[in-house]
Model the fold of this input.
Amino acid sequence: MAGLKTISILVLVCLSVFRPSIADVSDNVERLIDTQAELLREIFNELNDEIENLETNFENELRELETRLLADTESKVAELQSQIDDLKARETVPVAKQPTKPPPPPPTTTVPTEPPTTTKATTTKATTKPAGPPSYRHCQDVRDSGFDINGNYMIDPDGVDGPMEEFEVYCNMTDSGAYTTIGVQQASTMPIRIKGLDDPGANVFTPEYLLNAEQILAVVTASTECRQYISYSCTSAVLLAYHKKKKLHHGWLLSRDGEEMINWGGAPTNSLSCACGVTGTCINDNVKCNCDANESKQKLSDSGYLDDIDTLPIKSVHLGDVAGKKEVGGLTLGSLECKVRPSPSSSNMYLTIWIYVGVMVAFVAGDLSALQDKLSSVLNIQNRMLTEMENELKTKIDRSIDGGRSTSRQMLDNRQQASYRSMQPIQVQIDELYEALERIPETAAPPVPIPDTPAPKPPKTTVPQPPLATTVATQQYLPSCNEIKKAGLTEDNFYGIDPDGPGGVEPFTVKCDMTTETDIGLTIVHHVRKRPVRVRNRDKAGEFEFRPDYQLTSTQLKKLVMNSRSCRQYVGYECTNSVLMVRNQRYKIPYGWLVSRDNQPMYNWAGAPINSSMCACGVEGSCADRSLPCNCDSNDNVVRVDEGYVMDKRYLPLSAIRLGDTGGRLETGKLTLGELECV
Done:
């Protein structure tokens, strides 16, 4: 007890000696508060600096947008001025004078009921040469002119002032762009069997393109994007793997300039890789191409598009490792496809600018909101001391956001109105020129004489004769239904046409569809069999043959197609357990194919490129079984259809269609061949 008292006394003595005064405690608290306040002031200063930086960046972005908008406006003004110059040039083209002497009146006799036999000597043509079609630099120009049908068109990549003559290409009008397509002459033999030599690159394939090197280079130069499909199927044959002894890769490509490239379709130039190596989807993680896994128990493949415009088209393909008994490869090289990005419209330009500004304002507001959250978390610690500073900062933030938004909107509104004001008088001039052009007499084609009585519809089994004018002396023929529609005849009917003019084939009668398309008259050539054709009891590849009767000579059909801008023909096949593009194991040809007007077999179906061994769904990747090229190739006891249009007028109209695989009790097909349509 005595010890406890002693300890208590000592504690009291220590407390009385070392107890701090009230003044000392107050000083310590004030120093702590000052330190805390200084720390908070530093935080607020940093926040203010960040806000000022954001405001500065925002103003810089607005200035850049102003500059871009002004440049786009100037470009649009220049484009409109170019259109004005073009229209003025057209307006100044001399107009052929109309004959002052009126034609003799027609005789009083009526049109004979039996048409007389006419010859080329009894028909007259317009003496005024029609104006030629506009010059297209690429297929995008063709589409921009209103032609969105796949087919062959004449283009002039270096322009009318360039030294190169215009030439014919195939235009593939897809949703992703208008592709100028240059085919490979060996396309009908694809895929090419690679077998024989083992050394790296010893097996060489050199494609032969449908255009010469100068024309191909002109197409590529006039384009912004090009691509070329390439595929290699392999069994125990590597593709790009490195041969350690030879110190070479087994396979490589040569660019159009002869430069070696070690890569495959779907991979960058000289990446030593195939498409699966880029995406990380090869069959083996240790290889960059499926074929380099060197599998002998299954067939592998590597495929994709080459898209380096500076290297296309491919000059040659070099492959090896195919000398062994089980080593074999199959090479497919597609057409060169080039396109031009279409120019954005002014409305899209303004929409893009507004979206960009909106995203930028939202970004600035979002950053300031984040700063505000950071500020609130600090204010919760010393809210009593810093209320005034917080209010001041909030005011500055709100002023910055609202001022920036209103300033940017006002600036863009002003610039947009200024650009519209600058383009308005030019647009007025264009409208006036168009009105003036409409008043210029049409001289491209003479008017077609209208018969006194309408031409009767011909019997189904005979070829109708051209409608006659009131006199033979005034009989005139135009080259197509489109020209007849331009001349003022807009009723669906049978008309006589002369595609190649005097001295060529005899005029002949076609059906003119004047109503399906608003501004175009379609030239229609029917064949006798309009109903679907049943295909049964023909099991061998191509054993069934259907040859349409167009009731015109082959020369007349060819002249019609050659003198048309584009043509197409529908082909459909409804199948049950009857395949199309599956190849017969014995003859190595598909069970079904098309035959061109020159009797050349084409191993593809309508809607797919010539000799591609595919149907339309195979091109689009929409077949019932996506691993197969056609719906009918599923062979799954389900009624399926493969259909589409043949668009390449070099092969139209089709002279025959060959089918097979309908020998079984449950195997059947139904073929539909449409009429030839040209414009």
In short: The mean pLDDT is 76. The chain is about 30% helix and 20% strand. Residues 22-91 form the longest helix (70 residues).
